[in-house]
# Entry
Amino acid sequence: MTNMVLVLTAAAVIMGFILAWVNSLTAAPIQQQKEKALADGIRQVMCADDISVARTDTVSQTDNKGKELNYVIYQVNDAQHQDLGAAVESTTNGFGGDLKVLVGFDREGRILGYTLLEHQETPGLGAKADVWFQRGEKGDIIGKSPQEPLTVSKDGGQVDAITASTITSRAFLSAVNNAYNAYKATPIDAETGATKKKEN
# Structure
């Protein structure tokens, strides 16, 4: 019995060291891949290739359900260092779990583009959100401003919901509306170009 315990303990310790070693080898490449995916996402939602992130802010706001949420705002400049607007990370609760969206806004707050960063929606249904609301699609939101919150037509709004996925559609539009509110809560100081962090 003692020998079995010693053998199992030794095996567990060795496996622990191996897992830690593998983790140390893969941590950096995984982080690099995440950074590349984010950079690609920002270019995609801002509809431009030659851009740079001038500043990154984190804003906390309370949503319409009283829950405090954090938003990451990437202020984006073009190649001439002119302000293009911002890409905003926004997370809300979808049908299957967290729905994380990256939305690009121009300086006036119109939607330039979006991409889903994370979701747990049903394949073939809620997962269609990655294309359903794109330009030319049935729920097209590109070019719209959420100054008046975007809502699905079933709720009296102007956006067609994903077929058989109204909950996901509502969650997606809520994430977009919240992203817009977070973006508008970070005014640009005309003299310094610095983004002021504001919390509600």
Notes: The helical segments are 2-46, 129-132, 166-184. The radius of gyration is 21 Å. The first strand starts at residue 51 and ends at 62. The first helix runs from residue 2 to 46.
